[in-house]
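Weekly structure sync, notes
Attendees: PL (lead), two postdocs, one rotation student
Agenda item 3: pending single-chain targets
PL asked that the sequence for the first pending target be pasted directly into the notes so everyone works from the same version. It is reproduced below exactly as submitted, 622 residues in total.
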Amino acid sequence: MRRRAVLVTFSLVASLTAALLPGAPAAAAPAGCRNNGSGITEFCDQHIGTVGPRGAIGLLGDSVLLGSASGMSTPSLPTMLSNNGFGPVHLSTTLGMTTFNSSASKRDASAFHWLTRWRDAGFSPSIIVVNLGANHLGTCTPSSVDVCLARIEQLLREVAATFPTTTVWWAKVVQRSFPSGAATAGMTGWNTALDRAASRWPNLIVWDWPTALATANPPIVTDVAGIHPNSSAQYVKRSTLMAEHITTRMSSARFDGRRGALPAADTSGLGFAPVTETTIYSTLANGVRFAAGETRDIDLSAEPAVDDSAQALALTVSAKNSADAGWLVVFRCGDPMPPTSNVNFAAGAFRTAQAVTKITGTGHICVHTSTATDVIVSIQGNFLPAGGAALHPISPVRPLDTRNTGRARDLVVAVPGGEVLAASATLTVTGPSAGGTITVHACDPVVPAVANLSFEPNETVAGAAFVPVSAAGTICVHIDTADTALVDVIVDITGTFSAGPGGLRLVPVFGTRLLDTRTGTGGWVGRHGTGQAVDVVAAPPGARAVTGTITIANAVFDGYLTAYPCGEALPPTSSVNARAGLVMANSVTVGVNPQQQTMCIFGFKNTDTLFDVVGWWVEATS
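Predicted structure, written out during the meeting:
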């Protein structure tokens, strides 16, 4: 009983300590701050007016943030963020701040108050950094998480009402019992509440400060409860971690002037000959799965659907029953394996994607898988040196969205234009479902036994295909799912193929990564920001459209990317969709800006974005 009493007493002291900044009283308050009657700095309201390319950012917090203010530690967190391209930067922090305080005498210690003051002063942050929670720990335990969740969501609702487009970054708290070092009930309860809020609020990103503190290198020395860094130097270390996480997770990418080098072309333009899609290779049929890291030479020369004169193919490639999360890539045997991917998948997930690839003169392609998996390949059409249809890119349109028209197992879609032989289509499923597959075809009497898109339960995911068009100018969508309620389906058309004069022919190239925001490939440095459009020089002069694979990686929220010609209005379509945390890829064929050869990619939510080019489209020479 005596030991327990000591722990309880310490916990109370630690809670009070959250309202006090450790260290000797300041002789004079830093600029923008004030001291209390004991000479301790209790309040800072500081502004850096420099406008930065990453946008305005506001910081709200209690004593745990106060030590990061300018003059309290050098360099300060606002200075670091300004140097990283944010701005204007506004920091408002006080001892004892909580999410809300109704007392007029405590208005500076109420986060609500500062949201109103910022707005009234004309400051409108695109990001708000919140470092609150230490002063709520006395009422928060694992059994009273809802109490803390209510305080967190109260502030999030106020943020949404005051700054509707703002994203919130919120740090978890640390408070440990002495001498065990175990997390207190308040710490556990509050941090659990933050995790729950993050699962419910798409504009909230939570920083795991307890883990960051435990793994910091160099180590960060704190007070005995772990609440405050114990000196200005230790605060600088914490601010450095905060600035790094905020910059990489919350900001928009910036262009540094570099562009990715385009690959060389080794053939002239090819025409497209669509076929009724059929499976031409399947490990499920012969039982020989791919091993992890295996590259397999696949001979397609005997397949009737593969034209003897084909120099490239449009395929649907699927991974099924994978042992682990991974990816696969399709390429022409004899070429080096490209540093790209066509299909990305989670462990055990059935994933499909369109792949456009060159083929050897003797009818061989190669497939590499990063992990053990079954592989299925079906053919959408052949690219031929003579004959074939030409592509006519269009501004992406959405002729079907069952969220507006109603669900059905079989759907008919009108394709724009006349005398169209095939369409370049993006297929998306969304909404509650049991999972299943989608097949898109030329309204054939018998639905082809292929899957152009596979979807897991209750997810939004996209696929792509070059689809033969019926004589009536339509394509059909068939849904195979056990759910009698079916699923919502969206079809976007980005181009059509016809045999008439004009149009574009494909120049297939070695798969090359032109954009990767994780590494700065393509000149865009930093995360692809929410609502940001980045441009990629995706083709050489003279080309008018491009085909490649677009990938979402490290998505914080559920979201999508849309590819479209730079200079045109953002279309009401999407190119690839992904749940938070997944890596998802999809093929895209879309026009480019004819003057700059650029394709733009719009990001609905903060993510890393990749684009791999596999070919571009040039005007027919005859």
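Discussion points:
- Residues 1-26 have pLDDT under 50 and may be disordered.
- The radius of gyration is 28 Å.
Action: rotation student to compare against the earlier draft before next sync.
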